[in-house]
Amino acid sequence: MWQPRDRSTLVLSQQAPTLFGSVTACWARLRFLVTGALAGREQRGGAYNHAVAAPPVLGVQVRPVTAANYKAELDAIGSLLASYPFVAIDTEYPGTVHRPPPGRSAAQLAPPEQYALVKANVDELTVVQLGLTLCDEYGNIPVALDGGGRPLEVAWEVTFSDFDARRDRHAPESVEFLRSSGIDFDRSRARSVASAAFAAKLAAVLSSAREQRRGGELTWAAFSGAYDFAYLVKMLAGGRPLPGTWHAFATQARALLGGRLFDAKYMAEHCERVDLCGGLRRLAASLSVQRTNSPEPPPACLAGRKSHNACRIYTAMRRRILYRDGGASHQGLMDGLHH
After folding, report:
1. Are 264 and 156 in contact (CB under 8 A)?
2. Rounded distance, CA 17 to CA 23, Å?
3. Beta bridge partners of 159
4. How far apart are CA 183 and CA 171, in angstroms?
5. Which of 14, 226, 256, 306 has its CA 20 to 30 A from that of 87?
6. CA 212/CA 207 separation, integer angstroms
């Protein structure tokens, strides 16, 4: 199985607020450890020498982001972007209420029609979750130690407070699926962060990261990402309707996100490997990027864990399959929107 070329180990306990006094202090400590780990390496002959050997990673720690901690968690993400400038995302949303015309499937629609369908749904519906996973050029994901001292790759999962099934349009079967996967909508309305507040803080973090990187771009990835990027752009644009065309959308997305967009599913389905097709889990299995050595059964796969899978699939596509140009020729091309 392919292994990342390089890895940082970050020491972060789930009991960190007790150890360091506050969540903010904990993440300040984490940032120090990241910086120190990176500073302690030398690059010689194209390979890194590690100051400290990294332990094997057992699985994924999905960090919940709520109204109580979203500022601290986003500050932590911002402090990591200089070293981990690749951002994979996933969203959960209440299904779709606008469908293709009778007698036609989504696959039969022309790209402008596909985008119009995405726009109609995203403009009208409310995002439920956002997952975020960071990695570096080599696919290394920040690693934390949990309360038991086990090293786990970190992903973030934001459940928003906006959606109310009693008020907002939705597809009932999609909402029921999210409930069965573990989302408590009543609890979310009470304790989760509003998408507008989260987006305002995220915009500030991205602006600061852009200044720290001296104009250097981030790279954003998703799996079958048209809806994922559309919901993220809608949030960052203050909830306004999406632009009328994909070209205008792509321009707005690049400006708001400060980087390039990639769709790992499109990359997989437009490469020379005919076996790289299907959904997220199937492709993760085909590329051998799923973590299988965790001692615990896998939990429900929602936005945080899906963003982690999308990150590892994108890295595998970029570094193993499309290594000649790193997938650059697929920039801005989305599954379903481009043929």
Report:
1. no
2. 5
3. 129
4. 15
5. 14
6. 9
Question: How many CB atoms are located within 10 Å of the residue 42 CB?
Answer: 9
134 in helix, strand or coil?
strand
The encoded tokens of residue 12 equal: 């972060």
> Which amino acid makes up residue 33?
L
The encoded tokens of residue 141 equal: 């994901």
Q: Where along the chain do its domains lie?
A: 16-330
- Calculate mean pLDDT across residues 288-292: 67
pTM, whole model, 2 decimals?
0.83
Which of 37-41, 132-136, 157-161 comes out lowest in average pLDDT? 37-41
Q: Residues 184, 129: contact at Cβ < 8 Å?
A: no
Do 156 and 62 form a contact (C-beta atoms < 8 A)?
yes
Please tell me whether residue 240 adopts helix, strand or coil conformation.
coil
CA distances from 126 to 32, 175, 239 (A): 37, 12, 10
User: What angle do helix axes 246-257 and 226-236 make, rounded to 10 degrees?
Assistant: 60
Average pLDDT score over residue span 127-152: 94
**Cα gap 268→93, rounded to integer Å:** 24
69 by Cβ neighbours in 10 Å (0-12 / 13-18 / 19+) ranks as middle
| CATH architecture, domain 16-330 | 2-Layer Sandwich (3.30)
Q: Which of 42-46, 219-223, 277-281 has the weakest average pLDDT?
A: 42-46
Point out the least confidently predicted range of 9-18, 173-182, 201-210, 258-267: 9-18
Predicted pLDDT of residue 74: 98
Mapping DSSP onto H, E and C, the string for 15-78 reads CHHHHHCCHHHHHHHHHHHHHHHHHCCEEECCEEECCCCCCCCCEEEEEEECCCCHHHHHHHHH
